[in-house]
Amino acid sequence: GAAASIGRDKQARLVRAAALWLPELARRHWSGLTPPARFDAVVFDGGDPAWLRGAFWLP
């Protein structure tokens, strides 16, 4: 299904991008403390969209 399209390679690209931005956001908004980063996904398998909360997390 659609959720399977979010494989390890795609997750790794998203995590790398977040790792570049999170330190700056943490500096600006959270006193330099990086919060946990949860990645959600919305997938479509022909019907209604499905929201996958916590599809993966920043390690």
Write the layout of secondary structure elements.
Layout: H1 8-29, E1 38-44, E2 49-57
Antiparallel strand pairs: 1-2
What is the structure about, briefly put?
The chain is of the alpha+beta class and 59 residues long. It has one domain (2-57). The protein has one helix spanning 8-29; strands at 38-44, 49-57.
**Unreliable residue runs:** none
- Relative strand content: 25-35%
Mean residue pLDDT: 91
Structural class: alpha+beta
Number of helices: 1
- C-alpha end-to-end distance: 25 Å
Query: What is the general shape?
Result: elongated
How would you describe the overall organization of this protein?
This protein is an alpha+beta fold and 59 residues long. It has one domain. The protein is built from one helix and two strands; from the N terminus they run H-E-E. The chain has one helix at residues 8-29; strands spanning 38-44, 49-57. The chain has a two-stranded antiparallel ribbon. The two termini are 25 Å apart.
